Amino acid sequence: MSHPTTASTIRWEQDDEGVVTLVLDDPDQSANTMNAAFIDSLDAIADRVEAERDTIRGIIVTSAKKTFFAGGDLNDLLRIGPDQAQEVYEKNLRIKRGLRRIETLGKPVVAAINGAALGGGLEIALSCHHRIALDAPGSRIGFPEVTLGLLPGSGGVARTVRLLGVTDALLKWLLQGARYSPRRAQEAGLVHEVVATPEEMLTRARAFIDAHPESAQPWDDKDYRIPGGTPAQPKFAVNLPAFPANLRKQLGGAPYPAQRNILAAAVEGSQVDFETAQTIEARYFTELVVGQTAKNMIQAFFFDLQAVNSGANRPQGIEPGQVRKVAVLGAGMMGAGIAYSCAKAGIEVVLKDVSAEAAAKGKAYAEGLLAKALTKGRTTEAKRDALLARITPTGDLRDLEGCDAVIEAVFEDPALKHKVFQEVEGVVAPDALLCSNTSTLPITLLAEGVQRADDFIGLHFFSPVDKMPLVEIIKGERTGDKALARAFDLVRQINKTPIVVNDSRGFFTSRVIGHFLNEGVAMVGEGVDPASVEQAAAQAGYPAKVLSLMDELTLTLPRKIREETRRATEAAGGEWRPHPADAVLDRMVEEFGRPGRSGGAGFYDYDEATGKRGRLWAGLREHFGRGGSGGSGASGGVGSEGNRIPLEDMMERMLFSEAIDTVRLLEEGVLTSVADANIGSILGIGFPGWTGGVMQYINGYEGGVAGFVARARELEAAYGERFAPTELLLEKAERGERFTD
Ligand code: NAD
Predict the structure, then answer these.
(1) How many CB atoms lie under 10 A from the CB of residue 401?
(2) Does this entry carry the keyword ATP-binding (predicted)?
């Protein structure tokens, strides 16, 4: 006999044998979240299990939704301000207490994880004594909180540390935001059993209850030791050990408060008893919830990403389309990656290079990626074979017949690009979408040699294509709406995120990342210690150090782009203004023969045999060390011998130079959406994620846009007119407005 009761978001079902099933089932939402109704229900359930303890043999926690449990309500989080800290803290303790009361009842509690358990879902599961996950397709288990600037605050840090030890908990689960399949979660020790069917899940749950009439968490045993050796219930707090060196390195001092707080909650919490660990966790959680960074990141990763992917920029009224067969021209680094990504999404690919052999090399790249995926258990042999069968390498134009889209990725040479489009236009389907993956050449210019210029569009991928989620779609002057809609659909079809920009040299991403690189290089020329320049990029939160990135891209590339841009600017009657970085790059290439990594030497030394990156080139200090143009000369700098610039200035020169030019791109109409600018800056060019994107960085700057403008003026006075605020910035500052769509 069953006795259902209505506790609003958690349903209580009890059978004749005393097994209570708690069904997570929010009646008002499609997914379960930790909203106010849930917290009330949790209290009510905790009261009831305690009151009816003697009639209960065991508890199964499961969900009636497709996912097990979704986590916090992000809309709510965006509205919480610093004055609500106490409220957040108390609410958090209430959730922890509710879960803890069920956990310490003395009866077996089993999580029957029927779908994704991310964040709060995994935390609820971890408060159960035994976890059985259903091997549902696409089902994922993990803590994505860090990617939103938060930490798992419902006991997630305290329990994961107790299960896996501090280092594994941090590196594999808490700091990465990684999501694992149920099988991998089981291998890692967070899940006990993985089953194939819902029926089996419930049978196994009952079997656990039958076998463990009394049950508790391992950390509630007084002799339990946290993996790594610390007692789980120490009688007194011991001294904190030094943070593991690899963790410190990984954080690199970047301004990601979530990572800092997770690290602190984990390490401090591992030294004290469970209840104290929960209080520590609550404190760090609250600090993040009321702070600005989490809001920035939620806005960008959740709301902006949704806006971008849902197609606010896609022309309306055009039927969604699917590409069946794509011609990829050029099987070099980019072409090979594009071919792989298309084939992965189920599209037939004809990969064309100058010869069948050259094309086969491109296909070998996909083979390499798949071999790795296979060893890591990320694909199966059958899937690998099917994907490879979809890629046909060729040197023969005739094989492109019937392709309904073309993606060109030959050398960055306008004459060559014109030639290959002329060749293929007559062979592929008569209405095929024509895309170029140029990284800098104006699309309007490339379209000149093409007969159907309205079907011609830029599709700018990022390297490595299989990993980078962004594609920048560039609309040329003659590109039609239909081509734009089809390009948008193609990008979504291959599961990437599209931003849409209007044509301009370098578009959005290539142009803006150039400022970051230029500032780093310019500082070397001013005599700033190059190691400090690298450190400043890391401290600002950039994923790549500036000089090492410059080496990867080669120092010859910006020189080439600069020459082309100079010629085009002067031809259009504009005034060409050199950048202080130019002279440094020229000397590096011409005087010192150091063109970057592919040339064997750049800002860094590279091992001749392995090509591995070594140290920063000692000659940098010798040749540029006592330069000293620009710079405020103020104290607090990190340079050793050369010019000392405050670290804050170094970081902000990189951030501001990118932000100011992004505003200019909005003024010029190259960018038309703030959401695109935010997402594109994070996913495409490594603008620090803690900011919530380049426009959100300006909005969130201390003092808002006006504060940003005031600081830009200071940088302008100290380092040059390139930091002068633009008209739009001045206008927004004056009106007290923010940048929004
Ligand atoms: P790459 O040198 O690795 O490959 C170019 C390939 O094109 C070579 O395999 C070459 O044999 C082939 N090719 C030359 N002429 C051809 C022809 N007539 N027909 C067919 N194939 C021909 O270059 P890449 O790095 O892959 O760059 C390709 C394009 O992508 C360039 O326009 C580049 O600007 C752009 N891009 C590069 C990056 C990057 O990070 N490398 C990023 C975005 C865009």
Answers:
(1) 12
(2) no
Shortest-distance Cα residue to atom 30 of ligand 1: 409
Q: How far is the CA of 436 from the centre of ligand 1 (A)?
A: 10
Do 592 and 623 contact (CB within 8 A), yes or no? yes
As a whole number, mean pLDDT of residues 240-269 equals: 71
Edge-to-edge strands of the sheet including 10-14? 5-7, 10-14, 19-24, 58-63, 109-113, 130-134, 193-195
- Top pLDDT among 61 and 575 is at 61
Parallel/antiparallel/unpaired status of strands 141-142 and 179-180: antiparallel
What is the Cα–Cα distance from 486 to 341, expressed in whole angstroms? 17
Most ligand 1 atoms within 8 A of CB, residue of 329, 333, 352 to mutate = 333
Q: What pTM did the predictor assign?
A: 0.86
The confidence score (pLDDT) of residue 642 equals 66
Compute the distance between CA of residue 384 and CA of residue 390 in angstroms, rounded to an integer.
10
Mean pLDDT of the 9-34 span:
94
Mutate which of 398, 411, 462, 511 for ligand 1? The one with the most ligand atoms within 8 Å of its CB, which is 411
What DSSP letter does each residue of 266-330 carry, written as one string? HHHHTTS-HHHHHHHHHHHHHHHHHSHHHHHHHIIIIIIHHHHHHTTTSPTT------SEEEEE-
Whether 395 lines ligand 1, by a CB cut-off of 6 Å, is no
Nearest CA to ligand 1 atom 3: 332
Q: Which amino acid is at 82?
A: P
CA-CA-CA-CA torsion sign (270, 272, 276, 279):
negative
Distance CA 159, CA 277 (A): 9
Asked whether 458 lines ligand 1 (CB < 6 A), one says no
Let me know: does 58 contact 18? Beta carbons within 8 Å.
yes
Distance (angstroms) between ligand 1 centre and the Cα of 614 equals: 28
pLDDT at position 641 is: 57
Ligand 1 atom with the smallest distance to the CA of 463 is 40
Report whether residue 358 contacts ligand 1, using a CB cutoff of 6 Å: yes
The residues that are catalytic are 123, 145
Given this model, what pLDDT does residue 6 score? 47
345 with 374: CB under 8 angstroms?
Answer: no
- In this predicted structure, the answer to whether residue 243 has a pLDDT above a threshold of 70 is no
pLDDT at 303 over 90: no
